[in-house]
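BUG: 3D viewer hangs when loading the predicted structure for this chain

Environment: internal workstation, default settings.
Expected: structure renders.
Actual: progress bar stalls at 90%.

Input used:
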Amino acid sequence: MKVLYKNTVGKSPRVYLIDEIRGFAIICMVIYHALYELNYEFGVEIPVFFDGWFGVIRDFFAGTFVFISGIMCRYSHDNVRRGAECFFLGMLITFTVPFFSTNEISFGVLHMLGVSMMLYGLFGRLIEKIPPTVGLVLSALLAAFTWNAARGYVGFGAFKLTFPKTTRNVGVLFPLGIISKNYSSADYFPMMPWFFVFLAGGFCGFWFKNQSVPKAFYKPHCKPLGAVGRVTVWIYMLHMPIIFALFTLIFR
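Structure tokens produced before the viewer hung:
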């Protein structure tokens, strides 16, 4: 039988460009959260928050961060443990945010990444049997199909499937993206569509791990960004209380 996908390379080298892109993405996320706090917590009007293009940019950098996390699953030997740790940090944010903010975070990016990593760890062998190109295309289609789940429907263009009101009002389906009109979370990354963005990264990870992408990915270009990209979890955990404390000193 012909083997279509086999890693014939030894130990995979570090993908420095991914560290740098991840570092840039987390810096953009910190800036976004700082503007969010100014606008909604400290009364400093930020008109750009209400421009449609700003939401597109926000989703692009968030998607980049999630996509890269999926790529990294190809390199991990224990995604279940990584996912459990990530989810625990997400729950830590859920319980601590109310102490320094009026916002609530019930299913943010760390919750979603934690669950995604655990699912990948449990079903990774089955996932990796799917040819990467096929998996990437399917993941992209599913992400597009479920992109508006939090708005109450899934589908493309004129083909839409609306969630029944009874389903939306259940209240416990918010991790999936099925929410009521009264649901609120300052940082919300439901499994639909973000798990499919994560999976797309997982399929792309095949080419990164097997060194099938341009050599430029494996060379450092900006060491400071690379350093930031290697500690993104801690930056995410610490930046909100630091921002809140700093703005409190300035404005209150």
